[in-house]
Structure formats: structure tokens, C-alpha cells
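[[Per-residue structure]]
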Amino acid sequence: MTAGSFAALTPGNATTSVFPPGANRTTRGLIADAHATLYAVHPATRVHLTPTESRQYIAPTGTVRALIDYRVRAPTGNRSVVGHEVQAVRVSIGGEQVGTATDTQTPVITYSTTAAREQPLTVTAEIAVTVGGNTSNSTTQTVTVSDTRTVWIYRLRPEAYTATYPDGDTGLAVYQGAPWHGVTLTRDERQRVRGVWRYYTARATVWDRLVVSRAAGTMRRATPGQPLNVVAFPAQIGPRAEPVRGGPTLTAVWGVDRASPAPQLHPNVSVGLVRGSYTRSFGVALRNASVAPEQVRVHGIVRGMSAPLQSVTPTERAIRRPNLTVERVATSASAATIRITLRDSQTGEPIPLDGASPSPIEDDGPAGMLRLNGESVDLNASGMTTVTVAEPELYTVEFVPASWRTTSPAYVAASESVRWHPLGTVGGWLQLVETLLWGAIPLLAAWIAGRQLGKLLSADSSP
């Protein structure tokens, strides 16, 4: 649609300059209202990040469209205009010239850049007017005009981590520093996981009407069409795995938390934007019955930007079942001592609960935890601890591992239980008997006293 709208855009003639409101114009000598104005850069996606921050990401290879226009003032004396033209148009990104065009006021320039991150994209045009007379040589006057826009060069450079669960399922985690769309697991893209970003298209309203400038004054006219921009926003629906049934399971999303960019959207735009804070999905992790690496692709937020998983060289992580044991090692009539041991089932080594986080995956959930009936338990250097309990009940120890994406080797969750009650020991039974006897003495004394009192009362009432 943008290409069609641009094809219908008509610049002015020698006495007329056409430009959008707010264009940066230059008037010098015989050249008036000269400008070079960017119309569109494609492929590109503008991302609303926070209430005050947006970025326009562009592909490393794409197309720049611009409108170049000017009008020629009438020369003085017996001189006349011999010719006028746009001599050259250049596109540069950062300090690198990436594309050129000549002899056109509506250039469509293909570019390719090696730059990265934030860069200025500039369109520069050289405009020339030549005048001559009957008795003098012709002279040429030139004006250079430009327009600059800040862009971010989009590079899809994901890092991937894979793992095999003990039940045979496959885990896949993908991390990308810049905003990215998601990952597809099959060639038909039916099995997929999407991040927080969703999209809509919006016209560039600055091109709604055009200003037509002549020597006698200016007027406005409708434009034949406006460029359309792709806009990405964090959606209220959040990250999702598809299809819901029979598809992959989204197990984790991590990234930095940001405030909703709601203030940046026009009041007429209603697209399901997140209203509170949201997590930028730098990384997502999934679990599926199987993953065929040759079919997996990572997709960016800029059209046409994707990469096969095989080009990423994923790092394999091992996921093991931990060896968690819980046993009573000492009991008495009033308390019990429980010993908890947590070790690797293959090596016998202690499992650290606060393992270091391999770069670049970080802030991916809490460290591992060991809990006894909901209360945190610490282990010593040998992976063992003892806990003394006094309440008769079932005691359950739960091991909640850190994410497999932050530890190597990684582990699945585990739990073990042990029950303690004082009656489970001889001492407990003896204490129960003793307690019952001591409790029965007052009752027995009261019963005996009652019987004696009854006998006395019976004797007194006899004739």
C-alpha cells in the first residue's frame, strides 16, 4: 500500500514546490522551498516500549522512499532559466553511504548496511538551477537539502538452549536482546510460541495533506495516499503458545519490566494494549513432546527477519532427577529429628541451590529452594541438613529447582514425606499411659468421694 501511495505522489513543476507540513525547507538565490523529505523506510517496525520511548527498527537491507521538490525563482535582468534538476540523491546510515539515485524527485533507493544498533538515517539531495543570458555564459546555482530520522538497525542474533527432560520431552529456550516475535517449531508454523508483542498498521498523518507553494502564496491539497507504518505494542493477552491443545507448553518468559506505553497511542487506537506494567519478552522457554531442530525458526518483529535454529548452534543442557531423601534419625516422646539430603543422582555431588546464571540468560526466575512444610531449609556444603520438629504431623520436603536455563546440570522438582507422632515410639506410649493415669487420679478420687457421700446420705435417711 505504501508503494502504491508513493507512486501516485506527484511533485511540483518549476514554479511549484510540494511538501508535507513541517518539512525542512531551504530558500537560497534562485531556488526556493527546496526540501528532501523521507516518505517511508521498509521493512520497518515502530515499537512502543514505554510511555516516553519508541524505536523504529529497520531491516539491514530495505528500501527508502523520499520526496524531493523545489521551485525556481524568476532570474533578474535579461537572464533566463536554462535548466533545473535534482542532480543526486544519497542515503546514508551513520557514516556509511548505502544507496544513491539521480535525476528523480521521487527516489526509490535500495540500501544495505553493516551498521548496528541506533543510527541516523539521512536522505540528502543536491538541487541545481542553471541560468544564462544573451551575452554572458550560463551559471549554475546548487542547494543541498536533507532529512534525518533516527532508526535502529534490526539484527536477529538469538541464543538458544535446549534440554531433554527425564520423560523424553524437549525443552527449548531462546533469548534475543532486541524485541522479537517468537519461535515456530514446524514448517507449517502451526506449533509456535509468541512473545508479548502484537501489531497494527497506522498511516503517517503528516502526509494527510500537502502544501503547494508558489511565488504568489501557498495552498493545501489532499494527498493521493499516505505511507503505512507497522507498529508493535505489548499486548494484554501476553505471550502465548499455540495451538492450545496438542501444542507446546510455554514454561517461562523473562526480561525487564516496563510501564505500559499507553500514552503514546492515539485515543482512537484500541488494540488490546497492556495497561499496567509488562515484561519485555527477551527470552521465552517452552516444553514439547519433540522438537525437530531443522524445522525450528526464530522470527523477528521486522518483516522478513527470521533465522533457522540450526544457525544459532543451541547449547544443550542436561536435566536430571535429583536424589532427595527424607528420614527420621532420632525420636523421643516430645520431638523428632529429620535428616534431609539432596544430591545429584548420577554423581552424588551436592546440588547447589544458588547456582550461577550462565550469560546471557539472567533474571530467569528465583534460585532453587528446599522447603519443609512450606518453610525454607538451608543445606550444608555436603548437601545435607537436620531439622528438629515437635508437632505430630506429616512432614513434606519439596525441592523446587532453579530454571534449567540458568543451571547446568539442571533438575526436575521432587518431594518426599515422612510422618512423626509420639505414639510411634515406646517412650511415647509410656508417656501416654502416664498422662492418662495422672489424669485419672482426680476422677477416681471424686468418684470414691461421691460414693462415700452417697452412703452417708442413705444412712441418715433410714428410719
The chain has two helices and 33 strands. The mean pLDDT is 85. The first strand starts at residue 17 and ends at 19.
